[in-house]
Amino acid sequence: MHERFVAGEVDATSLADQVRPVVAESWRRSLAGGVDPDLGGARPSSVALTIARLRETHPLAPALPVIRRLLVDDAVESGVVVAVSAADGTLLWVEGDPVMRRKAEAMNFLPGADWSERGAGTNAPGTALALDQELQIRGGEHFSRIVQPWSCTAAPVHDPSTGALLGAIDLTGGDEVASTQTLALVRATVVAVESHLALLRLTGNPNPTPAARKPHLVVLGPRHRPGWVTTDDLGHLRATGLTGRHADILVLLSRHPEGLSADHLAVLLDDKDLDVVTVRAEMSRLRKVIGAEHLGSRPYRLLMPITSDIGEIFDALDDGDVESALARYTGPLLPQSVSPAIARLRTQLSASVRGAVLAEAARGRTDLLRRWLQLPEGRDDREGWRLLRDSAVSDPLRRAQAGGHLAGIDYDLR
């Protein structure tokens, strides 16, 4: 049924009698998300280069001794691999039987890999995160062919105070891993981890406190309000919403570490009607929102380093890591902003990501191209669809679909 579904001979509805509904729906999402069942396992995560920092600051780090005591210690000699992932599907820790770990590395089952459902197709940790429920995936139920010799059991972990999804705990191995006993063991481990985290917060134990992170600015994509994310003394994340004008200012200051005068900032924000009095008033309000310790004046500047989603994309492109840049690109920069400087930066970012993806596609990386074409900005990218249609490495079905989409674009353009 997997082979027939991937070949387009049956749809997800027709699978109902042969495949568990949870698996059929996951296959449908995997195929719609552009996951290639013939790829060698998961793709690298967008945070692969900063996995050490992510481990230090992740909320599950203080509970790692509990996971090792309940799962890893017994897995070392039992042919089982234990994995802990972040909420986005990035594997943080992969431990257990050393022989099995080496075998798992062949499908990129290692720290820093993206095992979300959109990154690796149907798999226990990724699908557990997608559905926010515990489940088991057996052998051939995996979407990627290289993963089908394995079975796995996973359950999501939640913040005991807020209920927010923190990540997942997974056991991967042979057929025996998909047993009811294994599911009960993973479920019990999750309960122990969440209880441990709750106890640490009640007692205020400082020992497991993660290292402080730099403030992080979130300004990409149309779905979410711009935000300023900081870490408190206990390592808990705190997100503060920003107005459009405040987000504009922080983006411009992050791109001008030397600082900007009130006059220069006024021109960058609005080259017609904005005066310096308005700029000074906005800066005063912004200090109250993010803290006076972050903003300096004369000239206006950031007083400490910050990170941002836009900065991470430019850094990835500078390093030649197009895959990470595309994974981080969730949409245009501050799409509602009317600032001429933001509009220029928005165009620069989008054109840079697109150009890098098309260059990779010309070298055969059609997987990146398909992901770009799924974005709103890529849906009418005529050159991108033409490259996918003419690619020698794409299968005939994908080339036919690309040709049909291209015909629709040409019809709209007359």
Describe the protein in words.
This is Putative GAF sensor protein. It comes from Mycolicibacterium tokaiense. The chain is an alpha+beta fold. The chain folds into 3 domains: 1-202, GAF domain (Beta-Lactamase); 216-307, Arc Repressor Mutant, subunit A (Orthogonal Bundle), CATH 1.10.10.10; 309-413. The chain is 46% helix and 13% strand. It contains 17 helices and 13 strands. It has helices spanning 2-6, 21-32, 51-57, 64-75, 98-105, 117-120, 124-131, 180-203, 244-255, 262-269, 276-290, 309-318, 322-328, 340-362, 366-374, 382-390, 396-412; strands at 43-44, 81-86, 91-96, 113-114, 135-137, 151-158, 165-173, 216-218, 227-231, 237-241, 295-296, 301-302, 307-308. Strands 3-2-7-6-5 form a 5-stranded antiparallel sheet, sandwiched between helices. Strands 10-9-8-13 form a 4-stranded mixed sheet. Strand 8 and strand 9 (227-231) form a beta hairpin. The protein is flat. Residues 44-49 and 206-211 have low confidence and may be disordered.
